[in-house]
Protein: Iron ABC transporter permease
Organism: Thermococcus gorgonarius
Amino acid sequence: MMRVEVSFSYGERKALDGVDFSADKGRLLAVIGPNGSGKSTLLKCIAGILKPEGRIELDGEDITALSPRERAKLVSYVPQSSFPEFDFTVEEFVEMGTYFTGGSVERALKEVGMWEKKSESVLKLSGGEYQLVLIARALAQGGRVLLLDEPTSHLDVNHALEVMGLIKSLSRERIVVAVLHDLNLTLRYADDVLVLKNGKVIWFGPTEELTPDVLQRVYGIKFEFVRGNSGTAVVPSL
Ligand code: ADP
Ligand code: MG
């Protein structure tokens, strides 16, 4: 289990204000909230890229004091997806994830279903495939915690569902925290939801207890939850 209780400021600007939650293996945690609410800052604090005030405990151990190398063995981070710029093969690219930790490239690529494409250039991959390779690079690092920042933001709906299905299955074996911008994917895949606004926790709990009222408070517009055969859809209205 991971327990997080952090505050963070960029200079004078408070980006996280006493953000307090826990995450468990086997339960996919989604972080949602409007632009600028502090979602990416929160992941960067957990990943150790930013130095917050407060505590981050993994199975009772405070990990904030660990060296970057020790921290990298525990926590893997997939930044918000960019597009590949350099002509690495898939295998070379994923190998970068193992520099500090010596994990297995083969196992990571097999886990995301991209082992057959190991010799292809990352420049030739589709957006969905590149996202899988980014996840594989994080898996190769071998951490107990996997952090993902908007893993489906560049993907069309079928690839988004495929990547979310993979993330859901990865969450059985590790603690997974995913920033999601899509509320429908959140309702469909998340087990727990952390709702941020202006750097504060507005709501935290199991997905089935999230209500349209909470979303209205956060986004400032009305929502309706429509229950269908394949799940619940969020319908916004002005
Ligand atoms: P989100 O990911 O929810 O869109 P961010 O965590 O990126 O939000 O940003 C939270 C707040 O911190 C925003 O007000 C943003 O403008 C500010 N912020 C983010 N990065 C920086 C930075 N490098 N320097 C100063 N302010 C920043
Ligand atoms: Mg962000």
